[in-house]
Amino acid sequence: MKPVKPYPHPSGVTAPAIPAKFIPQHVAVVMDGNGRWANERGLPRNEGHRAGEAALLDVVAGAIEMGIPYVSAYAFSTENWRRSPDEVAFLMRFSSEVLERQLETLKSWGVRIRWAGRRPKLWKSVINLLERCEEETRGNTLCTLTMCVNYGGRAEIADAAALIAEDVAAGKLKPKQVTEKLFQKYLDEPDLPDVDLFLRTSGEQRFSNFLLWQSAYAEMVFMNVLWPDVDRTVLWEAVEQYARRDRRYGGAVDKVAQP
Ligand code: FPP
């Protein structure tokens, strides 16, 4: 089925024209600032999460309009279990509700939904819904939205190392065969390309354990806007910044200043 175009931005603004070679293939998004957004308005933190749903959808719309094929969103980290039991329970229920509410729209836009994260502790209802979304959007190719739920970069790397150790112990693999390329195959989402643009909102400037392996050469862009106030124009502004960066991957060329 031909994908439906996402709804336009309410102001009518369209994606800036950026040459295809400067469009990131994979954008990792840390949706930060929900709690502060709510508290600043005299509301409980959970209201900030509620308001963040529309921001996520709009960013996916913006990614499609710009031709970004991979977006990964940090929805719940392996450290988020430390939040109050009330907030954890809210986030579990809310994640299922968001997926349930948005599945048909995302499906119609040609989005493939994937889940990256650990099973233990995660509510069965959330796992079931994430798996249903994966199943129902399997055939979509326009944009892959990886929902990172109960995800931690170190956990992903440690889990891969444990699997490799098992294969070495079983004689299926020799330690010498463990290269970066092979290591990647043992990650939770081995097909996920490297992150080009790592976007964090709310002014915080941290990785917070998100896609550590995949972000080795990512360009970091920090936007001083709280997640519920984000829309696709924030993503586009981040991509414009990204497009101006000089990516060298450790290489260097002499550019001696002329007298
Ligand atoms: C960070 O803000 C945000 C989160 C931990 C959750 C964000 C999740 C969504 C918007 C949607 C989830 C959807 C699915 C489908 C899983 P924060 O609470 O850390 O804000 P703060 O830094 O201001 O406290």
Features of this protein?
259 residues; alpha/beta; 6-stranded parallel sheet; 6 strands; 39% helix; 14% strand; binds farnesyl diphosphate
What does this structure look like?
The chain has helices at 34-40, 45-66, 85-108, 124-136, 153-169, 180-185, 232-243; strands at 26-30, 70-77, 111-116, 143-151, 197-200, 219-222. Helix 1 packs across helix 2 (45-66) and helix 3 packs parallel to helix 4 (124-136). The radius of gyration is 19 Å and the shape is globular. Strands 3-4-2-1-5-6 form a six-stranded parallel sheet, sandwiched between helices. It has seven helices and six strands, in the order E-H-H-E-H-E-H-E-H-H-E-E-H. Bound molecules: farnesyl diphosphate.
Write the layout of secondary structure elements.
Elements (H helix, E strand, L loop, with lengths): L25 E5 L3 H7 L4 H22 L3 E8 L7 H24 L2 E6 L7 H13 L6 E9 L1 H17 L10 H6 L11 E4 L18 E4 L9 H12 L16
Parallel strand pairs: 1-2, 1-5, 2-4, 3-4, 5-6
The structure holds farnesyl diphosphate (FPP).
Main sheet: which strands, in order across? 3-4-2-1-5-6
**Straight-line distance between termini:** 60 Å
> Which molecules other than protein and nucleic acid are bound?
farnesyl diphosphate
Structure class = alpha/beta
Mean pLDDT: 96
> Quick one: overall form?
globular
Give the low-confidence spans.
none
Largest sheet: 6 strands, parallel
Helix and strand succession?
EHHEHEHEHHEEH
Helix content: 25-40%
The value of Rg in angstroms is 19 Å
